[in-house]
Write a structure and sequence with these properties.
The complex is a heterotrimer of chains A (361), B (183) and C (257). Chain A has 14 helices and 15 strands. With 361 residues, chain A is an alpha/beta fold. Classes of the chains: A alpha/beta (361), B alpha/beta (183), C alpha/beta (257). Strand 8 of chain A pairs antiparallel with strand 2 of chain B, so a sheet runs across the interface. Chain C: GO terms for molecular function: oxidoreductase activity, acting on the aldehyde or oxo group of donors, iron-sulfur protein as acceptor; thiamine pyrophosphate binding.
Amino acid sequence: MGDVRLMKGNEVIAEAAIRCGCDGYFGYPITPQSEVMETLMIRKPQEETGMVVLQAESEVAAINMVYGGASCGKKVMTSSSSPGVSLKQEGITYLAGAELPALIVNIVRGGPGLGTIQPAQSDYFQAVKGGGHGDYKLIVLAPASVQEMNDFVDLSFELAFKYLNPAMILSDGVIGQMMEKVELSEYKPRWTAEEIEKISGSWATTGKTPGAQRRISTSLDLDSAKQEIFNHKLQAKYRAMEENEVRFEKIACDDAEYLFVAYGSSARICQKAVEQAREKGIKVGLLRPITLFPYPTKAIQEMLKNVKGILAVEMSAGQMVEDVRLAVNGKVPVEHFGRYGGIIPTPEEVVEALEQKILGK
Amino acid sequence: MTEEIIIAGFGGQGVLSMGKILAYSGIMQNQEVSWMPSYGPEMRGGTANVTVILSDDRISSPVLKKFDTAIILNQQSMDKFVNEVKPGGTLLYDPNGITHHPERRDINIYRIPGAALAVEMGNPQTFNMIIMGGFLKIKPIVLLENVKKGLEKSLPERHHKLIPLNIQAIQKGSDSVETVHTV
Amino acid sequence: MTATTEINKIISKENMVYGKTSVLLDNEMHYCPGCTHGVIHKVIAEVIDEMGIQDKTIGISPVGCSVLAYNYLDIDWQQAAHGRAPALATATSRLMPEKYVFTYQGDGDLASIGCAEIIHACNRGENIVVFFVNNAIYGMTGGQMAPTTLEGQVTATTPYGRDCAVTGFPMKITEMIAMLPGTRFVTRQSAETPGAVRKLKKVVQKAFENTREKKGLSFIEIVSTCSSGWKLSPVKSNEWMKENMFPYYPLGTLKDE
């Protein structure tokens, strides 16, 4: 067994960043995710790995620092919570438009507006459907444990560089603030200038080599015909992600007659609800999307052979449920159960909702 | 084995750190653990509570409505959690400041004069470990040696000299817990 | 001797008194007649060439008329969102401290929407060079008021002249920046005469030398014209600049430490 610790999800994000060879973190404090930058400041990775950690003057500046760093072929990231991530949307769409790899962590809190500092999942639309302007997609990973907070930092960078696309870890105050047992990753060295040249030399703005093609990091093309061709290229990339990168977990699904679909902390609550419902004789399973984009549409469709009804559980007024309904396409009833504004549903409430909204039909 | 525990009291009573030491002790005996605090404005001197789960299996929800054990350290927490103990479960409380004592008869109830004992020990910071001692006497879910390891892991090195005092406090708590009612 | 061989002799290398730097690309510039962006680009390109830092220089272009600056200088470029160039430059310089990083921004980009980014990059003393081209108007979007638009100046959004009681005052952001302890070298120049261009080139060189010596942030304002936005001929624009801009934005070095 490696380095096993008891850590908060937010602290683990910082630790995982250092260990996976991240080059730069740029952030701005906001509850409930300030521990990410605080942990980095305590750890002083600039002395250990050379990683740059900087508190920016705003979320807007932070995401644009990420744009600058990503343009250099570096592994760079930022983290924030909902209101701060709204401010970052401009930079995020520019990253997508310039095809730059980067990691954005959103420890979601209740909204709209300044909202609350308690956990929520009401930024699903923003993360998955756009958020910023233009036809773009983020790779969105939804950790459901502190261990996955660790694992998904490295995975996000891997996918971001594979597809030259920004990736988001969409978590919430439950996973960010709770402590669990976590086995930390092994240290990976940061990429050297030579490695960056090898991996990202075709686009990274590290200074023009004499005689070589110069590199320009931009999302601008005033020629509409070229812009359309570029958009086709982006769409092809998103289809490739849908083909290759869908991740999900099934719990108690083999004999399931009913199904919960839930991600992140809601999935944890649903896991308990599965136990409680099965004690009552209700054969319910849980399908947990791990990637929210690309979404496990096919996995849900495959469940429809045996499943008579689906309850989407999320800490929102009903966002992910739309993707469940698109997958199901009317074949079985799909209902939504959510608590929001920072209220976390209890497993008991989830079982009750299943009985009323799905079994009651 | 899965033990789902709520520890609730005032901010400053060491509620969160007690939960952390308990969780670390679980790790020391290869268990899965989770520690989920209430956070936010409540942190600033108001009520504080933390849900701690120790289990031999993967832990499902870190957020719970019902608990195997409630450790209650003030009246507000008593009001909030007395009815959230599962039937047959356990409630441990410090009577200091409690005006309405628990009356349920379907749960096991114990009490421990933690605040008074901490004064006796001349160190109010031993309070949470006295309570821990009481809890472990009733529910020996972690071994004392693992608590010691847990303390080593969760306390910063400069505070390691306080570990013997903490162990002493656990001992004191273990000796001082009183049974009020058992099912 | 034929005419062609005669010409070839005249233009032979030994007779060359001036040549275009290869750092300046041959792409036709989109700037309007009379605009000094082209001259400023050339000056920067020449300094990069003469210092031999082409392979180590990263330019950050803004949103505004010079958004396409990357088409003209043969170096690696990043194109920033409106006003955010100093944030990109911050990360680029910190992650690659051995490189020469500059931003190239207009008055709307730097002094309005990007005010926070420039102030904080200056305050942190980032080891970068900032070029601030101030022509007191938004050129790209069609001549609207900028923070540096003079009192009474007519623009598309101040059709009756800028009324300071309503819109605030022409912003002397370079003076503000000079006050910040993070800045090392702050100067205000122009580029309307050969003499001014020569002076400009000297400070550009000094600024990149500051980067090399890790001295911190160098800030160069270039007071400029906008014939299209001001609706004046290039010659009249220069006259208007001298009469109106120079008194309010006096040329000279504000800080050199």
